[in-house]
Each structure stands twice: as C-alpha cells, then as structure tokens.
C-alpha cells in the first residue's frame, strides 16, 4: 500500500512465489513490470524466481531493497526513486 501511495501503480504479492495462474494474470494485464521484494535472503531468492518466470514473457526489471528491509519500510522519497515500468 505504501508503494501505491508513493505514486507508483502496485500489485502486492502475498508470500514468496508466483503461481502459474498469477503469472498468467500479470502477463495478461501488464506489458512491463518492476518487481520489488524484501531485501532478505528469501526475498532475493523469490526475486530471482519472479524475474526468471516473468522475464520470458514480458519486460521485467528488479528494484532492489536494502538487506534486511521490506518495501513498506522504505521512506516515501526512496520509493519515488524506484524506476517505473512505464
């Protein structure tokens, strides 16, 4: 929600992986995407999996979060510096 409030369109992922059905929905609705997950090891692993899965089907880019942080812990100024997918 904080990412969306910073002015960036956002879709939240609950958990640490995307199902095939979720990938299908994202590919059907978007041409480009910036993926931003937690900065811990599970988040970085999930980031790699998301980039690999979505990257075969659409333009996708990673927005890295500092180690140990979560996207909702970032200041609004930090969120506004994240590159847009548009």
Descriptive overview:
- With 86 residues, the protein is mainly alpha-helical.
- The chain has a domain at 13-70.
- Helices cover 40% and strands 9% of the residues.
- The protein is built from four helices and two strands, in the order H-H-E-H-E-H.
- The protein has helices at residues 2-5, 20-29, 41-55, 76-80; strands at residues 32-35, 59-62.
- A two-stranded parallel sheet has the order 1-2.
- The longest helix has 15 residues, at 41-55.
- It is globular and about 30 Å long.
- It starts with a helix and ends in a 6-residue tail after the last helix.
- The model has no long low-confidence stretch (mean pLDDT 83).
Keywords:
two-stranded parallel sheet; mainly alpha; 9% strand
Structural class: mainly alpha
Biggest beta sheet attributes? 2 strands, parallel
What percent strand? 5-15%
Rounded mean pLDDT score: 83
How much helix, percentage-wise, in residues?
25-40%
The helix/strand order is HHEHEH
From the alpha-carbon coordinates, what is the Rg to the nearest angstrom?
A: 12 Å
Tally the helices: what do you get?
Answer: 4
First and last CA, distance:
19 Å
| Overall geometric form | globular
Query: Within the largest sheet, what's the order of strands?
Result: 1-2
């Amino acid at each position: 929600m904080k990412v969306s409030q910073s002015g960036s369109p956002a879709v939240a992922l609950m958990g640490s992986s995307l199902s095939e059905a979720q990938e299908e929905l994202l590919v059907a609705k978007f041409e480009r995407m910036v993926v931003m997950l937690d900065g811990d090891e599970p988040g970085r692993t999930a980031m790699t999996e998301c980039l690999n899965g979505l990257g075969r089907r659409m333009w996708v880019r990673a927005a890295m979060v500092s180690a140990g942080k979560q996207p909702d812990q970032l200041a609004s100024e930090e969120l506004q510096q994240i590159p847009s997918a548009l």
